[in-house]
Amino acid sequence: MNVAFIVIVMASVLFAALTGTADAVGLAALNGAKTAVELVLSLAGSITFFLGLVSIVEAGGGLAMMAKIIRPVLVKLFPEIPADHPAMGAMVMNLAANALGLGNAATPFGLKAMKELSTVAPHKGEASDAMCLFLAINTSGLAILPTGIIALRAGLGSTDPAAILPTTLLATGASTIAGVTAALLLRRLPMFAPGQVIDPPGDESAPDETQGDADTASLPLNPSKSAENPSDETQADVTEPEPVGSLWPLIGLIFALGGLVWAVQAWGQAASAWILPALVAGMVGFGALRGVKVYEAFMVGAKEGFQLALGIIPYLVAVLAVVSMLRASGGIAALVDAVGGIFSAVGMPAEVLPLALLRPLTGSGAFAITAELAKTHGADSAIGLIATTMNGSTETTFYVLAVYFGSVGVTRARYALAAGLTADIVGAIVSVVAVNWLLL
Fold first, then answer.
1. Which residues touch 216 (CB under 8 Å, ≥6 apart)?
2. Residue 30: helix, strand or coil by DSSP?
3. Element (H, E) at 18
4. From CA 304, how far away is CA 325, in angstroms rounded?
């Protein structure tokens, strides 16, 4: 984000010099900062409300239920990780939290998963296949409840804030499939072959032990059993796989989400108008049926939501100020003229290009660009719909890779970045296709 910030400011000054708009550019920076604060204040209510609802679902055990649905798929995708290994549990909880829009809960689980995966990685300092695949799924941003974007649209006066739910489902599903597929294919290329990072000094004395750990990692070990003096009965317990659950709940969820997309495609506004009321009633009803003190749980999440809304003010001020400078200088108009024809061919408005480029770099910056586009062009315009769908369909690839790999000292990411960017590209393209198909 540091580089992007500098580039935008310098480009604004350069275009101002070429077009003679220096006074307008300076004023735009101040107006952009003012607009950012006003925007956050207008969004605070929606963000507070939706995070309160999410807190109800979390208190009712929604996170554990989603984890139970996801677990069977991860066990099949990661055959080299034992079903009862701590890494598997952390990955399940991380992806479940992301799917429910619980970003604050997802990050600690993700860091825990990366730490545990590093213990069974064959080469220190190098991303294993399991690490790369996990990050490909994580950066694809699989999200079933994009509550943050719905709150943004509501705060900007959308007549149907939840209209982007089905389009986001299509885009995030496609980006996840693309990320997983890319990871599984790229690992076969010689250029991404493992073993090209030398283990740090001090590990040479234990190659057999390390190799033994890697070999036995494929066994469904039960950590509660002792490895000393194994009897036949104990051996039977050790080699017996731990039950991982059925795929039927996930299949049912996929059909339900597919039915939602079909309903919006078939009935349009008449169907999408019911998404938000049904979502609110469903989240409150879920908590009530699970015995949650709904009001108290809502208050917990609402307080966090209000603090979150205030916390994003500095990021929005920074981004909207420099973007306003670039627009006033004529830089964005020049960019639109230069690449508008190319992106119009695939149905993507050229105005959305800065968001597509910034989304893999910074979540706060992408959110600010999305808010600016939706405010400038209208939350229910084609640009507003595509921008909000695109923002909710993928994660911040570079940030996730830097934080997760940095936490375990990985210096060679192999194909993790390529897989993540593949997911980003597919998510952006499908966002455009889905909006044009379902909402325009």
1. none
2. helix
3. helix 2-19
4. 32
pLDDT tens-digit series, residues 121-175: 888 889 999 999 999 998 887 778 788 888 889 888 898 898 999 999 999 999 9
Please state the pTM of the whole predicted model. 0.74
- Residue 395 burial (10 A CB sphere; 0-12, 13-18, 19+): buried
Count Cα neighbours of 314 within 13 Å in the Cβ-side half-sphere: 2
Domains: count for the chain = 1
CB-CB contact of 19 with 336 (8 Å): no
Contact partners, residue 239, CB within 8 Å, separation at least 6 = 219, 220
Residue reference for tokens 């649209």: 153
Instruction: Give the C-alpha separation, 165 to 53, whole Å.
Output: 16
List of long-range contacts for 196-204, beta carbons under 8 Å, 24+ apart: 196/126, 196/412, 197/123, 197/124, 197/125, 197/126, 197/411, 197/412, 198/125, 199/123, 199/124, 199/125, 200/124, 200/125, 203/124
Locus of tokens 């940095």: 406
Please classify residue 437 by burial: count the beta carbons closer than 10 Å to its beta carbon, then call 0-12 exposed, 13-18 middle and 19+ buried: middle
- Which three-class secondary structure state does DSSP give residue 372? helix
Q: Per this entry, what is the length of the chain?
A: 440
> Beta-carbon neighbour count of residue 154 at 10 Å?
22
Three-state DSSP state, 37: helix
Type of residue at 54? V
pLDDT value for 219:
32
For 303-338, b/e burial (b = at least 16 CB within 10 A) is ebbbebbeebbebbbbbbbbbbbbbbbbbbbebbee
* CA dihedral of 216, 218, 219, 222, whole degrees rounded to 10: 90
> Of the candidates 292, 294, 325, 381, which has an alpha carbon nearest to the alpha carbon of residue 33?
325
Q: What's the pLDDT band for 205 if we cut at 50, 70, 90?
A: very low
Residue 379 has pLDDT above 70, yes or no: yes
Distances in Å between the Cα of 104 and the Cα atoms of 97, 120, 147, 150, 152 are 8, 26, 13, 18, 18
**Alpha carbon 92 to chain centroid distance?**
15
Outline where DSSP puts E strands in 253-395: none
Structure tokens at 106: 């997802």
DSSP 233-289: HHHHHHHSPPP---SHHHHHHHHHHHHHHHHHHHHTHHHHTTHHHHHHHHHHHHHHH
- Give the domain extent around 114: 2-438
